[in-house]
Fold these 3 entries.
Entry 1:
Amino acid sequence: MRGSLDPAATRGKVVLCERGVVKRAEKGLAVKEAGGVGMIISNQFLDGEGVVPDAHLLPAVDIGFSEGKRVHDYIHTAASPTVRLSFHGTQIEVKPAPVVASFSGRGPSAQSAFIIEPDIIAPGVGIIAAWTNSTSPTELLPDERRTEFNILSGTSMSCPHVSGIAALLKAAHPDWSPAAIRSAIMTTAYVNDNLGRDLLDESTGNRSIEWAHGSGHIDPERAADPGLVYELSTDDYTNFLCSSNYTELDIRTITRTAVNCSQNSSKPWDLNYPSISIMMNQPVPTTSGNYEIIVHRTLTSVRDANSTYMASMKEPSGVHMVIVPDKLVFSRKGEKQQFVVKTSANASRLQAGASRTEFGYISWTDGERRVRSPVAFTWHQSF
């Protein structure tokens, strides 16, 4: 914090600061006001290895948790530790990229186990964009600098990317519904980095899972021509709320219309969403047995051409899946075709109240386009 450093110990030094509590740029201001000439910001354990750029007020560098430990150990073991901060220019074609930022919003959803969250990931680290000259790039009062552009990171930086892509898709396809736009974005996303490997999670350094990246990283060009989309109506959402055990009063409060849940026979995983999340509740006591769950979906063609799509899949570990039919033929734009995903799995040994989730996917392709949906299968042990 500002005023917390001893100027006698700080003057002329580069200070190692840990991330957290105080804004990163404000840490630099604290170092500068105490006479420091530079700063190294080290991630803490929960921050992982991901670093984000800031408009610092003095020469500074951000490093991940493991590098921070090395610097910390060096400071405490070297007789006379020294440091040099140097700028090597903007780095392009960094590999691997993209990776899931450590601050990225994670699932599962606290509201519903029957939707994989997040839907999608998008660029959110080091985003350069227009900036108001009414405040400094750090938004700190002692910072008198003004600039037309700034560089920020956060989920709030991903949001305008997705919003802009949705607007472009609506301009290109004025007849598309919000559900169709979301479907196009989700089913055309990619899950491999520029090394051809599974996306990595900055927070762990390991493979990212669907609770971190959802359907994958957004790909606007492919989203413009998805071939097929998963459409949704108001009734679909109402049926989803009914099957999710919302009361009719709850639903009427949300929809502002009367509803009769006794007429609904669907399951919550039957919502025609571009991803599939299945929850298998195991009664107590359960240590064995096989459970079968059938998921219903409907695809709509958005192309003015005949097309044939073939199904493929990757089964979640411990789950057997069958897609029926595994071939869909469309002869016109707007035509709908239904299919089901039959799943079966043995009971999983879990403690009361515990859950276990495994991921897979289903995919439809006509040879040029791919319509991919992640599948989450969750075992939940009842109390």
Entry 2:
Amino acid sequence: MTSSISPRHADPLTFSNGFTTLPPAHYTRLMPTPLPEPYLVAASARAAALIGMDVTSLQTDASLALFTGNVVPEQVTPLAAVYSGHQFGVWAGQLGDGRAILLGDVAAANGEGRYELQLKGAGLTPYSRMGDGRAVLRSSIREFLCSEAMTALGIPTTRALCITGSDQLVLREQPETAAVVTRMAPSFVRFGSFEHWFYNQKHDELKTLADYVIDQFYPSLRETGNPYKALLTEVTVRTARLMAHWQAVGFMHGVMNTDNMSILGLTLDYGPFGFMEAFDPHHICNHTDQQGRYSYARQPQIGEWNCYALGQAMLPLIGTIEDVQSALRIYKPAFGEHFVDLMREKVGLQTRQPEDTGLFDHLFGIMQDSHVDFTLFFRKLSDLKIANPTGVEAVRDLFLDRPAFDEWALQYAARLQAESSDDTLRKLAMDAVNPKYVLRNYLAQTAIEKAQNKDFSEVAKLLSILERPFDEQPENEQYADLPPDWANDLEVSCSS
């Protein structure tokens, strides 16, 4: 299947396409489908700098045409990749890039590696199934902002270079305008890329893919006795640590299908995501997920389940079930140790003590009982004083059950005192890891509604705030407030 051929032109970015070193069975070459009269919605200067671009160059007609898919440089051979996957725990068979087209890869500005540039929403591909191959402005803004927000939070993620929009309408629950978000990552290979070849019983293609991933992204694994086992081990560790990062910042992905899991341990495919507000470990951010498979509390377990699915797919390469299980066994300790370390940082502890896990469990219990805002609590906790741990009203008043907080605060203060913690230094350390600003759904919705009326100023404003999540930014104080009542009616689903 091919789309109408886009015109080509020379472009200052020097493209190659390392993915095409794989055999043609791994992808389909095709051109993006043009959108009429594209315009720039938003651009990330930080993402642009990664590939040596000045963000102002993204405003030119040539860049608009390139990053909408209307014009393709001579040396570019766009493609859509094939993969399969488990969706909500059920084998879904062949999936693939249904609305994403890979332009190619460009050198990183620092000379370390390359970035693939992928146009999400660039039109029909052979893998679109019942879809139209398009993305809407609403979902593109959410992905763009969250990709860059997660980067600023220090969480591994794909990046977002820019959003281009068009007045062309596409039908979702209602007609919406189309958009294309340009995503960046060293690779978009997924767990489902491996599953595709395993379940199709094509072990030669499976080996070819694994060799490509090792040679391109994990070359040191070639020195091990079993590089494929070493690859599974490395990906398992990265996935476990990613889950710990998500839990520690209160991020919920919403659709942790195996086709949405990165082989590089990156946060991939932002759809119905959310950041925890009123703390509820059973919170489901995806309105489509009626069974709660991807609730906040289950994310670590699902991360491990997905690693087992990858291990199953890699079994023909690794050799024995025992070796697969040995590689996967690292998940629980890798997650547990990293999560506890992140929690110690969040509450300002300098040393490791056996009782710390109990202290954290106690805290999450009282936060759940009082539905305490996750981000506000950890940010305000840095104001607690050892000499008077119950005296900070801004923290205490977050709890409906104040005596329960008082009990925990006294335990916490005793723990701090035991390691001679300094209130001033601890506050500096805690504020450096506990964000004041996260992409709350109502903030994204406000920006989306303005953008739908061609006012993109709020998207730019949010981006500038979220790029500095740990700074006080007194001029933007209202962006750290509790969500308004109307935000309780917001829902995000797989169409988001």
Entry 3:
Amino acid sequence: MSLSIDLLARIAIELQSGITHEDRFQRLIGTLRTMLACDASALLRYEQHQFRPLAIDGLSTDVLGRRFALSAHPRLEAIARAGDVVRFPADSSLPDPYDGLIPGQEALKVHACVGLPLFASQTLIGALTLDGMNPTQFDSFSDDELRLIAALAAGALNNALLIEQLEGYNGLPAPRQVSGDASESEMIGLSAGMIQLKKEIDIVAPSDLNVLISGETGTGKELVARAIHRASGRADKPLVYLNCAALPESVAESELFGHVKGAFTGAISNRSGKFEMADQGTLFLDEIGELSLPLQAKLLRVLQYGDLQRVGDDRSLRVDVRILAATNRELKQEVLDGNFRADLFHRLSVFPLSVPPLRERGDDIALLAGFFCEQSRIRLGLSGVAISQPALTLLRQYHWPGNIRELEHAIYRAIVLARAARPGDDVLLEPGNFALRPQAAIQPAQPLSVSKPASPGVTLREATDDFQRQTLRAALKRSGGNWTSAARELGVNVANLHRLAKRLGIK
């Protein structure tokens, strides 16, 4: 069997058709899978020494979220270095990155594998991978035919990247300049909510506007702040982080604005605050809603006039700092309740961003599961980590009160449990490896029954407090310790719930 001119023309036409890049690439690999009779095909984008899937066919959905570092995948490294068609022998000792990731054949190894590196002006921009269970699956196709396919795909991918660059919107996961491990800063997700969030980040990042990032605990607000800073004109300057919730009141002012020697007991030398450290750069104030009202007033002055005073110093210092703030509280309600200054709120929320909770992100759950599987595989030194389709269904159905952070921990814990049950370097995650209940099984809060009156001598206030304490603890237990979810279940504002918990001695 060989590729006819008609079939090659069909590929070319589909790559030039007036549909989105994502759909175009999906149709390309779907066509290739049919034409070449392969069991799986994938189009990968190359950047920063790793491949990331743009479109897949015949592979588990979670593959789209995986990031294949060349250092951890020798077959992909061989494709990246080859410069031409690569045919791996059926008995190759190099592990295939898709072993265990073909639905229905998780226990089988891929036997036939062809890699087509994609170039633009001699620069590697991606790869096409073709895999099959039959060792002789691609023997009838010549290298020249495969080179034609690679050339067509490379042209389409390069055009897509150029168009996205000109439009200023990163719809494809195109490269961003990041320091350190790129995977630690990447925002994984193709859901409508995440695409909209990425668009808004691309709009506001080049400006110097202050940004208020809101979202539940564990949704990835810090990643949003990093993305804004990386795409801003201050990217080569520091991004300074401060968790306002972890600031003791006694040192909060010094942490923000610094102090001079002798300003208070223990001030043995001059010390710069976070604002000075972030001068010309960006200051990320996490959990901004936890700042006290007096400190809010001092923060407002810096935002208004751009000058600050170290604790114990009469002199003013000028600073040029962009503020990114994050909160899991409803700050508008906090303003109405008198717990947050309205003028500071308006200064911070010049451009508000909202990070969607994981339960509203659909198939992003599978992508993130794949991303964390690959990270855990490398961390634990495993050959492969796959998720069965029933396990993926369970992950999609779960409510995820702890959002992405909870998913990451659940994946890592499941891998450890699966490996303990079946020792080996290849791990397949099944539903039993996850201590999760699907969303349908999560019951709404039931009112606690009071079958008898309080004991003699117990006041009405004490009895009421005891009832509230029981109710709050039960809601927190059902939500896995997530305060926002507990507040939603109880029908109260999360800030008010925090204050109630402090009064009742729970927090």
